[in-house]
Amino acid sequence: MKRSRPLSTVLLILGIMTHPLSGQNDDEQSERSSKRRGFLPDTRFFGISNRYYDDLTGLQLGLASNMVQGDLTGLQLAGLANVTGGRMGGLQAAGLANVAGQSALGGQVSLLANVAGGAAGVQLTGLANVAAGGALLQAAGLTNVAAEAFTWGQFSGLVNVAAGGSAVQLSGLANISASESSLFQVTGLANVAQGDVVVQAAGLVNVAGGSAWSQLGIINVTPEARLLQIGVLNVAAKNSGLPLGVINFIGDNPLRFSIMVDGYGQATTAVRSGNRHIYSVAGFQGDKDVSLDRLGSMLLGLGLNLPLNRAYLAVEYLHNQRVNALNQRAAAVGLRAGFRVAMDMALVAGTSVRWDDLTTGDAAGNLSNGWSIGLEWFRYFDVGDTSRDLGIDFDDF
Q1: Does the pTM exceed 0.85?
Q2: For 130-139, what is each residue's pLDDT tens digit?
Q3: Torsion 299-305-308-310 (CA) sign
Q4: What are 275-284's pLDDT values in tens digits?
Q5: Which of 29, 177, 262, 388 pairs with 161 at a CA distance of 20 to 30 A?
Q6: CA gap 278, 302 in Å, rounded
Q7: Residues 178 and 160: beta-carbon distance below 8 Å
Q8: Contacts of residue 384, Cβ cutoff 8 Å, sequence gap at least 6
Q9: Which domains occur in the chain, in start order?
């Protein structure tokens, strides 16, 4: 008994024998036939390669590829590629690529690439999605690109690019929005928004060409920080919110470098940076008797500043972490008062109490040694030049 033919071979033979548009149908007879029947709903085609010269409403199924020269309203299924010359309203599913010459108002699903010449609804692929007129949803293992119109969602393992406005961009490497406004950018490496942005969160750097409401990354750059900047280095021409960084370069607000001694015989060097009312503290405190067992402590903290013409008052919360003993750490609350004796220098005095003493009621007994006195220098930096080097123009600020 002879072995039965595979199902795919049987379907192929039946398609070629029963349908004049199956296989290679590029002659005039097939073109006339396709135009006569193009208006019929639920039109079905089977074969290796299907080519249709008019608008199609229904189903197009090919083992290798499908092509509709006009608009498609329905479903294209192919093992290799689907191509629609006009608008596509429905679904294109292929093992390799889907192409819609104009808008793709339905879905495109493939293993390699989806391309829409206009607006796109949903594009899902393993490599790249491209929509020339914006997209509702793009999900790819490598890259998403949407041009011109607003893009609602881009999700990729590598890069998202939106030339128009973008609502949500999530990627493993980088998000780029070249429009006047973006809503939400989250990535493992870098976010870049040419205009305003609401939220940027990155493992390395966030850059906004306009205002930013929230930035979370190692390096954050924006002309205007409206709400929150959290990172190691924050750069902003204006900051009206919370600059929570180790170092903050903010417009006309100088970095303040200080050296002080206290009642315990310890010397402290620190830099204070932030906006007019809120700043961060980063410094080092040496022990009175320096040895291998007592190398000093690192200081990190936050302060609230009240400027009074040439004088200023501040309240600070400081975290003290001993360098060579990770289990030895403490917190303190301090008061500082400064008076500018020159444009770039001030005399500073203060007092502090350890948080443990404050909570246990022993603060009064330790205030006698908690005093400190020293000098503070003000250093201004040209934030505009620094930001232009990173691609942001601060000339309007």
Answers
A1: no
A2: 998 888 999 9
A3: positive
A4: 999 999 999 9
A5: 388
A6: 7
A7: no
A8: 237, 394, 395, 397
A9: 1-97 (no CATH), 255-379 (2.40.160.20)
